[in-house]
Every structure is written in structure tokens, then in C-alpha cells.
Write a structure and sequence with these properties.
The structure is a homodimer. Chain A has a three-stranded antiparallel beta sheet with strand order 1-3-2, with helices on both faces. The N and C termini of chain A lie far apart (36 Å). In chain A, helix 2 crosses helix 6 and helix 3 crosses helix 4. Chain A has one domain: Orthogonal Bundle (Arc Repressor Mutant, subunit A), CATH 1.10.10.10. By secondary structure, chain A is mainly alpha-helical. In chain A, strand 2 and strand 3 form a beta hairpin. Chains A and B meet through helix 1 and helix 5 of A and helix 1 and helix 5 of B. The structure holds a DNA duplex.
Chain lengths: 124, 124
Amino acid sequence: MKLVRIYQCLCDETRLRILNLLAQRPLCVCHIQEVLARSQVQVSQHLSRLKKDGLVEANRHQNWMIYSLPKKVPQALEAHLRCLQDCIQTEPVFKSDLQALKKMKADCDWIDEVVSPKNSTAQV
Amino acid sequence: MKLVRIYQCLCDETRLRILNLLAQRPLCVCHIQEVLARSQVQVSQHLSRLKKDGLVEANRHQNWMIYSLPKKVPQALEAHLRCLQDCIQTEPVFKSDLQALKKMKADCDWIDEVVSPKNSTAQV
DNA sequence: TGACAATATACGTCAAATAGAATATTGGTT
DNA sequence: AACCAATATTCTATTTGACGTATATTGTCA
């Protein structure tokens, strides 16, 4: 993957906010939409942009698309995502996004179950 | 400095190539122009873009503007520039730019003298 | 199957970024 | 002062990106 592509993905604040959220946990579109207070279309478009370049991956579960950071990414990308994580919390938007996310914890706990079920028969 | 600004600077390949060159040594516009085989205007415009956000600094020496990476940059920027440096050599363009630069070494050695003169009276 | 919920895609529009041409600026030289 | 070399700026055309509206897709459930 070309280096410049990474930066082209990261050069939009909405996408940075999305990645910041996904760095916490897998989420479905509606949760992201709610935290960012952006339209469904906008969130969806940014997500598909990120997916196109492999910065996120998507898995459908029933009606919901669960987006997450891929477990395994190219080395350059991994380095940059780590660097991003190191720097991002110094900015208020990102911090408050995480707080908003925490408040919704109950709403998205089921996702953790789906992604890494403790009991493999316990599917929703 | 806002994080997204950093990425907006880095999301253009020409600018990445410029930064890659400047990571080696201070250079004047005409050298960059030659290595990148881009027009004077284009190089100048990208440089002024980078300067606007503090990714490079400029010092005039006679007819020449000497561009260089600032010694001291904000922490987030520094982290990202380091990350960039770690990753950039895996791509052919950047590697060959450095080789082209080496071939011009003789042409730009005077810059090193100007930037950090061994003998302070030895100005061109 | 019909209706609904969650998400995606298509298309048009507007703003911002890029590149090129022409011109301006700055400093040195004669 | 006239001229030249190096670089910057302005103006304009073109491209690209973001966003909104409308619509399509996919899966669930009655």
C-alpha cells in the first residue's frame, strides 16, 4: 500500500474521529453516527472510504454492519495507526468522543459478544 | 497544531518527496525541482504550503531560498515525521530520489557550509 | 410476501486543492 | 540603473473531495 494513500485517508477529521472510536472497540454504523452527530450517509461514505484502503473492515451481523480495525495490517499502516493513537488524545474532540462512547456502552455491548463470543452458541 | 493538518500536508506525493529530500539535508528550490523533475512553480507552491503549517522552514541566502526541516517542531508533528521516515524508504520513488540527490551532492555542498559553517568567516 | 430497520450507492452540487501561464519580487552583478 | 538568476505570487482552468437528496440493497419479522 502506498504511503500517500494512508495520509489521504487520515486527512479528514471525521475519518480520524471514526478511527479513534474504532480503536476502542468494534462498532456499528448507527453508534458512530450517534457519537459524531453526523448523517447516516456521511458516516457510511467515510467508512466505505476507509474500507476501500483497508483501514477498517466490515462484517455484517443481521441488520448491522460491524466495523472494526483489522487485526492484521501492512506494516506502514500499523506504524501510522499507532502514531495516531499516541497523539490523538491531546485534542478535545477526540477525548469527548470517547466519553460519549462510554455513555453508550450498554447499547453496544452485544457487539463484543458477537465479535468474540465467550460462548460460541450464544449468538443473538 | 491540529492533527488533521499534519495529514493534510502529507497527503500529496510531491510533498512527501520533498520532505524525504529535506530529511537528508537542507536544499534550495532548484535542487528539489531538479530531483523531482517538477516545475519551479509547482515546487515553490508545495514548499509554501508546507511552510504555512510549519513542516519546513525557509532562509534566504543571496538568490537562494534554503529550505530545511525545522530543528524544533510540535510533538505530534515530530512523531509523525519520524514515523514517515521509518516507512518511506520501502517505496521506490523515494529511494531513487535520494540517489538522484546523492549525484548532485557537489552542487549543494555549499548549503551545508551556509547552514552550519565550520568557519564563521567563510561565507559565500 | 410485505413492511420495516440498518446500511449502501448513485448522482448532483459546491468548495477546496492542484497545476500551469504569466508576472512580480528579491538580490547580485556589471 | 539595467539586467539576470532564483524564487514567489496571482489568476485561471481543471480536478478532486465532501455533502445532501433520493434511491437501492440486505436482512428481519409478521
